[in-house]
Amino acid sequence: MIDETPIEVQIVSRSADTEDAAAVTSVLRAALTEVALNEADNRVTVSAWQSSQRPVREPVIPGPGAWRNFSG
Fold this sequence. Notes:
Elements: H1 18-41, H2 48-52
């Protein structure tokens, strides 16, 4: 998702008219959108298969006292 928080842009020029300001604003918006989309694409994602994996449990070792907590 792209952050739509408005930012303040101030154009300081004696010769800039409304068309120039609109053009600069449009170019800046497109550039910032492209950067945001590229950052979103570069995030590391974890598949459902990877997120459901759990560490392998310790092996069960049979023998005297190994099952002492078993309540049957």
